[in-house]
Every structure is written in C-alpha cells, then in structure tokens.
Amino acid sequence: MKILSLLILLLLNLHSKTIKASYIINTKEIVSDFVFNDKYLFIANIKGSIEIFDFQSKKMVNEIIFPLEQTLKGKLVRSKILSIDELNNKLLIVRSSVKAFREVWVYENRILRKIISLEDKLSIKEARFASEGKIILSSLGNELMSYDLNESYMSYKRQIEESYFTDMELSSDKKTLVSASESGIVSLIDVKTGDILKTFSSENVDSIYKLAYVKGTIITAGKDRRVGVYQKGEKAYHLKSNFLIYCVALSPSALNAIYTKDEDSNLEVFSLKSKKSLYTLEGHFAVVDNIKFINEYELFSSGAEKKIFYWKLK
After folding, report:
1. Is the separation of the CB atoms in 201 and 187 below 8 Å?
2. pLDDT in tens, 71-103
3. What are phi and psi of 275, to 5 degrees?
4. Which of 51, 165, 216, 250 is most exposed by smallest CB count within 10 Å?
5. 92-124 b/e with 16+ CB inside 10 Å = b?
6. CATH topology of domain 2-312
C-alpha cells in the first residue's frame, strides 16, 4: 500500500510547475502568525511584538510592542503572540504568558486595550472577529466562547469536544465556523448560538493541525499525513502524503488548495476537482504553519523562521 500511495503521488505531481517566491519579507523575529488587509501586512512573532509592513513598499512602517513580563525568578521576557485577526483596521490579538493563562487584546487607532486578562484564567488559543462588536474565542480545552466587546461579557460558552482544540476558521460572512481537534473530527458551528450543526470525521484518523474553510468547502491538515477534503454535494476524500501535513489553505474560489508537502518544506497546490498537482512552491527552510491566499493566484506563507514568503502562481 505504501508503494501504491507513493506511485499515486508521483503521478499527481508529474505535471506540476515548480515556483520560487517572488519576494521574501525579512522580519525581526520568528513569525508566529500573520494577517493582512488592502494596505498592510501584520506579522506577529514569538518575541511579543507585531511588525506592520506596507503592502506595496514591503517596508515596516510601525511595530506594536507589548510590555515585558516578569518570571518567577525575576527575569523580564517577551511573551509569544499566539493568534492575530483583523477587521476594518482593528486587530484582535492572543498573547501567551509565563503563567498558565493567556491575554486577549484589541489594537485600534494605535491604542492597545486588554479585554481578557490573566485573572480571567482562560487558556485561549485563538480569537476571531465575528463582527465589529463580537469576537469568538477558543480555548485549549476546546471551549468555544462568544464575547461582546461593547458590553464586556460572554454571551455563551460551549464545550465542543473533550479532545484538545487545534484550529478554527470562520466563513467569509462570519455566520458559521469550523473547528478541529486532536480527535480528527471537524465541527461545523453556528457562530451566533455556538450550536454544532454538523460533524465531519471520515477523512482523518489523528490530530488535525490546521483547517481551511471557503465557500462551504473544508480541507484539513492531518498528523496522519492526510489532506481531508469535504465539499457540499460531493463525496469526501483525502490525499495521502509521505510527510506530516502541518498546514493547508484554500483559494478564494475553493477550486484549488495548498498543503505542506514534504520534509524539505515545499508546498503543493492541487485542484480539488481533478486531485492533480498544479504547482510546487520551493524556498522555505522551516516547517510552514501558516498559508493565506490574497487572491486566486497570489499568497503568503510563513514558518518557524524570520521570513514571510510571497508567491505568484501565474
């Protein structure tokens, strides 16, 4: 079976085109997460700051620096930024701590405002804007929360699974989200109520590292070396790799997808319909854990290195 799987992969990759990055943005620290809008690229790092780059000039124009934390031994350290989201020039930031819990901040008009403190004793892993006034939070323990920014209260808390949470993605209209865990199960959730609408479990047998969710299509990056594909009205399937799949992304049309291909940190773009490889992206030196499409033919990617890669497929 292993030989057959490798032969299938070779056949799928036979006609793929190799692409090098069009340019690379060098950052001050190792990238932990990034987001962008029409004007800026916001790059969070493991040393507790967010570097803001002008989208056109590719030059850093500002930096958000968080206060130092003191360890039990009195040492001052900078805590890692775990998650970042953007809506209408407003940033939503999850910051780790030397303590067991996490902080959540909002950055707007050059002002940082803490909305979840260590005293709230929440182990938040990711946060996303549901609207201007509401955010969605997910904890390591897989508890999903809706928080009202205007009234400063939790409108609901839902335990999604007993397994540890790994990733979530909201739909473009922010009405639904998909959430994954170490169980390999994907949950489709109503953002307004927190109710689980549907679960998907046929394509992964181990932990899901990352998700992508566009136009009702869901793809997964699995520890089991599988890219799971769930499409409306189509039979679910998976592509098998010979290396752990750490990250996936979907193009805006949801016609093409990309995943981390091999131990050389190459990325593979394939057609969801034909399952055929279209492009191989070469250049990363570290495991890629974040990929985002700008449009159908342009995307950014990052891994555990001081770089953001920009790719042009056409």
Report:
1. no
2. 888 888 889 999 999 999 999 999 999 888 999
3. 70, 10
4. 216
5. bbbbbeeeebbbbbbbeeeeeeebbebeeebeb
6. Methylamine Dehydrogenase; Chain H (2.130.10)
